[in-house]
Amino acid sequence: MEGWRAFLGTLKSNGIFTVSRWYSPANLNETGRMVGLATAALLDSGVKDARPYLFVATANHIATLVLSKTPFTEEQLRILHDVVSTGGFKVLLAPDTPPDSTLLRQATESSDLRTLNRALNTSYLDLEVPTDARPFFFNQLRIFDIPQLVTVVRLFLKGEIKQGIISGNLIASCALIMILFISIVAVIATILIPLRGAVRESQPRLITTGSLYFSFIGMGFMLAEIALLQYFSVYLGHPIYSLGVCLFSLILASGLGSLTSDRLKLNTRGRLLTWGMIVTAYLVIMEQILPIVFQSTTDRERLVRIGIALAAIMPLGFLLGFAFPTGMRLVEAVDKGPTPWFWGINGATGVLASVLGVMLSMSFGINLTLLISATCYFMLIPVSFALFGLQQQTTVLGAASGVQLSRSEGYVEPAK
To answer: Parallel, antiparallel, or unpaired: how do β-strands 62-68 and 16-22 relate?
Structure first.
């Protein structure tokens, strides 16, 4: 919707905006995403009734939308109908031709965005108006809505949706689910099973707490990375720019953070709390501020936008870089034996989060993926406190053992 807002903003008062997309003639509701987006853009511009501004014609598997910034005149409608008749096309909807689909009719009659999305959600398809937080215009499947997904699969197997974009959506979603399944199997076979021997002789409390810690940073880091890659793909104009800028800066900054953590150690509860709260707050603020920044700077030169991306990502990466070495210092102070296990847990959860992050963003929005990442880092605070407590307990026990050994030799000397 943010893009269409910009498109309409560039038009003169008598301007026309047109867009074409694939659809299945057997399922008119596949055009609902396009029609809903057009209606939302008009409502966002202050229009009360979108119907006088919309004209949609179809030809075979293509639907073409013509959107006017002002209501179509009778002369304009006559010309459009003449062209449709001459070309052998079909009118799907027009100011003087209501659509045959109940869903499309309710959508174009909507007076606000909430009513519009409610009308679009009456189908088994995901036709909700796409925004920068959820810009997946071409995906119309609800991956996490199992009943609706089963309905689509059943219709596909019966041959009722072999044409149109839904069959492509279904194949892509099945591939994504298959990647997740393969990742789970690979993680278990290549990481967890080979490393299980590293935890056999370690205390269960350390294994449980340490596994939680490294799971949270594995999930949190990767979810933040996936969310930022998707956010900046829209902002920078192409995924290749997002990969080059976001991935490079995030990894570089996190490496610098890891290096700095050797000198600026998070070795007290106060420092751990401060760091955890700053990271959580930074991620939450990014979720709130980035859309505003995008809206105000999206028309700037690409180099300017790259600079803005670096300014937003580098401090976050630097902060995130503290997590892994801090966790390693905490667990190794208790027992170095299970260290390989914790490395594996971190890698395993990162691999799985890379797939889950895509699925979460597609289904619920990139902003939610970023907020889940913030939750992971917030949960590190109590978990790191527990590890810190284990470290102190081990230090005390070690000191007591040293005193006892000295007494057995006939003298008392404080253990170092």
So the answer is: antiparallel
Output the pTM of the full model.
0.86
Cβ atoms of residues 281 and 218 within 8 Å: no
Q: What per-residue confidence (pLDDT) applies to 413?
A: 42
Q: What is the DSSP letter of 164?
A: S
Is the pLDDT reported for residue 157 higher than 80? Answer: no
Q: What separation in angstroms does the CA of 297 have from each of 235, 308, 365, 412?
A: 9, 9, 22, 70
Type and span of the H or E element at 288: helix 269-297
Tokens at 204, concatenated: 């269960």
Whether 33 contacts 163, CB under 8 Å: no
Instruction: Name the token pair of 83.
Output: 């062209």
Give the pLDDT confidence of 347-398 residue by residue, as tens digits: 999 999 999 999 999 989 999 999 999 999 999 999 999 998 888 777 666 6
CATH fold of 198-401 reads Growth Hormone; Chain: A; (1.20.1250)
Instruction: Transcribe 104-131 into DSSP letters.
Output: HHHHHT-SSHHHHHHHHTTSSS--PPPB
Domain ranges of the chain: 2-130, 198-401
CA 271 to chain centre: 30
